[in-house]
Design goal:
Elements: H1 7-18, H2 22-35, H3 43-61, E1 83-87, H4 94-102, E2 119-125, E3 128-134, H5 147-151, E4 156-162, H6 171-181, E5 184-187, H7 201-205, E6 210-219, H8 229-237, E7 243-245, H9 257-264, E8 267-273, E9 280-288, H10 293-300, H11 302-306, E10 310-314, E11 322-324, E12 334-339
Parallel strand pairs: 1-3, 1-4, 4-6, 5-6, 6-7, 8-12
Antiparallel strand pairs: 2-3, 8-9, 10-11, 10-12
């Protein structure tokens, strides 16, 4: 990124990084284009911004009347506590795992390139859900051109490999490279495990760089007499992804995914109540560690967030009904009563 950009541009870029809804992302991109200094040094970036505006505008316009782009959307709107995309070589068992974990009816086939479109599904964990998106495979030979767009709203990736394939880990560097060419970086770092170092110069260089926390899912453990070897293999290839071993076929190991994601993404559940009414202990709102009462209010309603005065909180880190300001950091399991 050129160093002589304006604070206005920086602000727009910052907002773009945080935006998850396509409409919001588009507004941010337009603001970036409006505020970017127009000179030779920013030519590349200007072109990049324009391309992304064009792509998003088309995506939001939906299928064109009588045009080519008909059919299902290629980007899944995020839902639940977090969105995770299944990435991996053909036939690794991504769809089988998706079906097992979410109860979806995504197509499973004994041949490569079975999946051709993104398929959403919800993985239940305690009283929340994680959204898992099944995707077509990535290989040295082929990757759907829209696949990197589908990854943009994700909070992380599940990199699925087939333990019964002797070359299973050799596919990994190929996949990483294909995605890297499109500015998507599968990273072994998760906020709740080993967080990315702040001030990593690379990470801030390019507003369109996407760093996705990634867990290696070593699938088909039922076919492998020595499923523990995945760690040794990782070491040999210099990979550092956290790994979970499982079998979509037998269900072995699949229960570990929910707790892993909950910890690794630092999910915080907050229950809300309206003054004078009983609490909604059924469906929590989810935020991340470090988020505040105001962040919770934003999820409830933007008018409530705008007019928020204070909150009362019941939970492990406060005394019952303690009055706090909008900037109070919430903890998992807190019950929050919003006053506005
Ligand atoms: N034994 C065994 N077979 C599995 C397991 N998971 C998937 N399979 C089989 O592996 C084959 C491929 O499974 P899919 O789920 O379609 O794989 P995919 O990664 O979605 O494949 P693409 O959509 O082509 O990328 C199917 O024949 C599955 O039945 C597993 O854990 N154990
Ligand atoms: Mg599939």
């Amino acid at each position: 990124m050129p160093t002589n950009v304006t604070p206005e541009y920086k602000k727009a870029e910052e907002a773009y990084r945080k935006a998850r809804e396509p409409k919001e992302r588009l507004d941010c991109l337009r603001e970036m284009l409006r505020t970017i200094p127009k000179h030779k040094g920013t030519d590349h970036l200007q072109a990049d911004i324009k391309t992304r505006i064009k792509q998003l505008t088309e995506e939001l316009a939906g299928p064109k009347k009588g045009g080519r782009r008909t059919g299902p959307a290629l980007v899944v709107r995020p839902d639940g506590a977090a969105q995770l995309c299944l990435v991996g070589p053909p036939n690794a068992g991504k769809s089988s795992l998706h079906a097992r974990l979410t109860g979806s009816r995504t197509d499973v086939g004994p041949y490569p390139y079975t999946t051709q479109l993104p398929i959403p599904g919800m993985l239940p964990f305690e009283d929340i859900h994680f959204q898992l998106v099944d995707l077509p495979p990535v290989s040295g030979d082929f990757m759907e051109p829209w696949l990197v767009n589908a990854l943009q709203p994700a909070d992380g990736a599940l990199l699925v490999i087939d333990l019964s394939d002797p070359d299973c880990l050799e596919h990994v560097p190929v996949i990483l490279e294909r995605l890297r060419e499109k500015k998507v970086f599968l990273a072994p770092l998760w906020p709740g495990l080993e967080p990315a170092r702040p001030g990593d110069p690379d990470a801030l260089d390019d507003p369109f760089r996407l760093d996705l926390p990634t867990v290696l899912i070593a699938n088909k453990s039922d076919l492998d007499p020595d499923p523990e070897e995945v760690e040794i293999l990782e070491e040999l290839l210099g990979l550092r992804f956290p790994a979970l071993t499982m079998s979509a076929e037998t269900g072995d190991g699949v229960d570990a995914l929910g707790p892993f994601l909950f910890t690794a993404l630092e999910i915080v559940r907050v229950y809300t109540k309206t003054p004078g009414k009983p609490a909604d202990k059924e469906r929590p709102f989810t935020v991340r560690r470090g988020d505040t009462v105001l962040d919770v209010a934003r999820l409830v309603h933007k008018d409530i967030a705008r007019n928020l005065k204070f909150a009362r909180v019941w939970g492990a880190e406060v005394f019952d009904g303690q009055q706090v300001g909008p900037e109070h950091v919430v903890a998992d399991g807190d019950l929050v009563e919003l006053h506005f």
